[in-house]
Amino acid sequence: MDSSKIVLNPAGAEQESRVWIERLTAIGSERDAALAELHALLLRAARFEVGRRRAASSQLRGGDHDDLAQQSADDALLAVLGKLGDFRGESRFTTWAYKFALYEAAAKVRKRSWQGREVPLTAEAWPLMADDHQRTAQQSVEITERLAALGEAIERELTPHQREVLVALALNDVPIDVLAERLNTTRGALYKTLHDGRQKLRSVLAARGLGLDEHKEQTPA
Amino acid sequence: MIAPGHSNRDDLLARLTGPPGPELSCEECFAQLDHYVELELAGTDADTTIPGMRAHLEGCSACGEDHESLRALIATEARADT
Ligand SMILES: [Zn+2]
Questions:
Q1: Closest to A102 (Cβ–Cβ): which among B15, B20, B70?
Q2: Helices A93-113 and B26-41, axial angle in degrees (round to 10)
Q3: Which pTM was predicted?
Q4: Which residue ranges form the domains of chain A, and what is each CATH number?
Q5: What is the whole-number distance in angstroms between the Cα of residue A190 and the centre of ligand 1?
Q6: Structural domain tally of chain B?
Q7: pLDDT at B74 over 80
Q8: pLDDT tens across B10-41, in order?
Q9: Disulfide: which of A55, A112, B34, B57 matches A95 by Cβ 3.0-4.6 Å?
Q10: Which residues 56-85 of A have a C-beta within 8 angstroms of B?
């Protein structure tokens, strides 16, 4: 057997998942025990996530932020129970449940690390950064032209909302969950706005003969 | 203003224009993330089974990070089990 692959034992996993669902939809002490076990698993996942993020963020060092892990496990437990009917058995039940805990924890950590910081929605000026000089003159000219065209298109072609979202997320590194909270919307809605803006920018580049990958395939005759 | 963290212009270009081709939404990504990670860890072709996922994980840094975390957690547990 190839030892580089992780064997997840599908048959045993299916049985295990079925037992989880049965216990969580039972009544009485059986269900209480399953809930406690599930909460413990979710808490472990949330702590795993908080630990990863804390290591990567200078804002979060110097505190264990276990309150975030606890809150994430509580919220994830509610989310899992609310979505139990959506579980299709395409993965192990525990893998499916973990993603809720990780999602809650990651979003909470991103928000805490931006607490009290201003969320920049505008670019003061179009960033014309120095090139790294590790390219041919021709490549360098192409990328300069593209960035100049993008700077112009961001000002002229995007709606104000698209511009704000693109600048905050793609230019100013604002985490999407933080922006969603400030603008009172969701990650999914913001990403759609970002995606639409990016598509518009791509089409502007293509129209000017500065297309990215597309121009390799469909060079006009 | 020099955007923080973007030392190179290719990176900036990629962030502004996103990945090429069709991609899942954040909601679709979340719905399929557990399945995708298990396929990846089992060494099967996750991208053929769930098209549009890879592009979304490249284009959406939050979902990309969530994917990394789930993958790391499951890999850690699978190693602990054996
Ligand atoms: Zn996403």
A1: B70
A2: 120
A3: 0.88
A4: 3-113 (1.10.1740), 137-217 (1.10.10.10)
A5: 9
A6: 1
A7: yes
A8: 888 999 999 998 999 999 999 999 999 999 99
A9: B34
A10: none
